[in-house]
Write a structure and sequence with these properties.
This protein has 448 residues and is mainly beta. It is built from 3 helices and 33 strands. The chain has a single domain, classed as YVTN repeat-like/Quinoprotein amine dehydrogenase (Methylamine Dehydrogenase, Chain H). 4% of the residues lie in helices and 48% in strands. A 5-stranded antiparallel beta sheet has the order 3-4-33-32-31, with no helix packed on it. The radius of gyration is 22 Å and the shape is globular.
């Protein structure tokens, strides 16, 4: 990574991206960006450029849910502009190339990327450093830090940001004002200090987590691995390696429920359709929970077991457009279930050589990121058949997280286009443009 005289970061791809940093480097923040002594506080603006990649044509194929579409994309070679110090020209982002492709690569040599969230023109990235970066127009816009290190989950809801951490805490941040959108201030943590004090008085509020160790039921005592929000009812769901699913009321940050949901770590939770909540675990199961009235309030009940297998469930995603639940597993498969068929099993998408670590949906598209470093782009056709449009292979490490936003600059009603952000353990975030009407491999050959 190089620096110019103005402090602008020039992004380069490292030749040693798979090597894990020493323990000491994981907790070392940058004084230039995060002032010494400023804990969980706002930080000044800092901008850095990101490397542009030449638009290239993706490789595609057609397949049903049972076919194997793994095809290497022809544009995985490094772009000649990778090491260019030029600032990104916004007109390049506005250009409609008409094909899937890599837009840019954002690299900061400070930690593996574990979490991503996109909100409009802002992108939040969390890593195993103390820092949460905020990017705008592919340049560094802001940042804030925590004591806990690894950031495993990020949720953006209006002017608030929720971050889930390795230490079991959920921290809440707020943009300080509309006049200074780059400044984020910490509001507090979940559960609140007030609720911890109130709960700690009664012995019944404690649970035994291991021999001679009791903890408050409303607190996660292991890593918060995933979060999801149901905006309509104002609830936040958090899943943890402590095997519990917790339900939080957004209005007052109160923990309404703590559910012993699984027999092993919860890797994914997603609030879906029909007031359903789906959880996936390392115990190999996918469970369905429904919020129902009980007495004067509501409670979540287990209503269905969708999957029970030996392989760990690593990721979940819901397509609200087609009302389908997708589930990624450590065996590299993506299973899916359809609401229109009473959550019956719809099929399997086979596109990866290794574990599927993350999933995302947008329109009729499904994106699956894998430990093999690739991202498969699927399109759901009529009848429930899925076609693999392309395979993105730009990352040199496992793809850990995905986020998708509609590309307002080029998207049309007849051809919706999406911007896909992929975070990897190669310490980079890559940005892709995907067309929902992308041609298949044969059509691309004819065009060229």
């Amino acid at each position: 990574m190089g620096k110019d005289k103005g402090g602008t970061m020039v992004m380069e791809q490292s030749n040693n991206l798979h090597s894990r940093p020493k323990l000491g480097t994981l907790f070392k923040s940058e004084p230039s960006l995060f002032p010494i002594g400023a804990e969980d506080d706002e930080v000044p603006n800092r901008k850095s450029s990101a490397s542009m990649a030449s638009p290239r044509c993706s490789n595609s194929t057609t397949t049903s849910g049972e076919g194997s579409p793994y095809i290497m994309s022809p544009w995985i070679q490094a772009s000649p502009y990778i090491k260019s110090p030029w600032v990104i020209n916004p007109s390049m982002l506005e250009a409609d190339y008409g094909q899937d492709g890599l837009i840019a690569s954002i690299v900061r040599e400070e930690g593996h990327i574990y979490s991503l969230a996109a909100a409009g023109d802002l992108v939040y990235t969390g890593s195993d450093s103390k820092n949460i970066r905020v990017w705008k127009d592919l340049k560094e816009f802001s940042g804030f830090k925590t004591k806990s290190g690894l950031v495993k989950a990020i949720i953006v809801l209006g002017d608030k940001v929720f971050t889930g951490h390795q230490d079991g805490k959920i921290r809440v941040w707020k943009v300080s004002s509309t006049t200074s959108p780059s400044v984020h201030k910490r509001l507090g943590s979940l559960p609140t200090f007030k609720d911890i004090i109130k709960s700690s008085v009664k012995p019944k509020n404690y649970v035994e987590v291991r021999r001679n160790r009791n903890v408050l039921r409303i607190k996660h005592f292991d890593a918060v691995s995933c979060m999801s929000v149901n905006e309509e009812v104002g609830l936040l769901y958090s899943g943890s390696w402590d095997k519990t699913l917790k339900v939080w009321r957004l209005a007052d940050s109160k923990c309404l429920e703590s559910i012993d949901a699984h027999d092993d770590a919860i890797n994914s939770v997603v609030a879906g359709f029909d007031s359903l909540v789906f959880t996936g675990s390392a115990d190999g199961t996918v469970k369905v929970w429904k919020r129902e009235l009980q007495g004067k309030g509501t409670k979540h009940f287990l209503v269905q077991l969708l999957l029970k297998q030996e392989n760990s469930v690593t990721s979940l995603a819901v397509s609200r457009e087609s009302a389908v639940l997708y589930c990624g597993s450590s065996d590299g498969l993506v299973n899916f279930w359809e609401r229109d068929k009473h959550l019956s099993h719809g099929g399997i998408l086979r596109g990866h050589k290794m574990a599927v670590l993350c999933l995302a949906t947008a329109g009729n598209l499904v994106f699956s990121g894998s430990a093999d470093g690739s991202i498969c782009v699927w399109r759901r056709e009529k009848g429930g058949i899925h076609k693999c449009l392309s395979v993105f292979t730009g990352h040199t490490g496992p793809v850990k997280c995905l986020a998708v936003e509609e590309d307002d600059r080029t998207s049309r009603k007849t051809d919706r286009k999406w911007i896909v952000y992929s975070g990897s353990l190669d310490k980079s975030v890559k940005v892709w443009r995907v067309s929902e009407n992308a041609p298949d491999m044969k059509e691309i050959k004819h065009v060229s």
